[in-house]
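User: Here's a chain of 168 residues. Predict its fold as tokens.
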Amino acid sequence: MQLLDIQISIETEGWPAEEVLEVMASRVLGAAADFLRDEEKQPFPGMPVEVSLVFCDDDTIQDINAEWRNQDKPTNVLSFPAFPLVPGGKPGPMLGDIIIARETVAREAVDLGKSFEEHLTHLMVHGFLHLFGYDHMEVQEAERMESLETRILASLGLSDPYAGQDPL
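Assistant: Prediction complete.
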């Protein structure tokens, strides 16, 4: 059974073509959903859960970050769950929105010595986990979320993005 219905919106130039992002999102979020279902026993409804991916620029994400988080600066990814969900809780038909800023992703990828695609993959997984109620505000939460991210990324053939770092 297909677990996700992924909706994509490209709000600015410079992103890969929509078809490329659709294939990537299906692969990445599909792997994350399969992992949560199979390894974490995450319940899913009997129908695909809709998730929205918005690909924007730094100015747009800065505006959203200022309005919703009182942080007037760009960030790499923001997640907005459609409904509050705790880890392991059953999502409704609409999971929520993941918003990603191109310039920040590109800068961070260079700083980390990773490809744009590899860093974007990590941020998609990170944002997706937030929609399921995972967070990284406390050390224990961060360790749990980072462990899930690392294991999901490994299933996609990518290395641990947190190697050698303390939990957020």
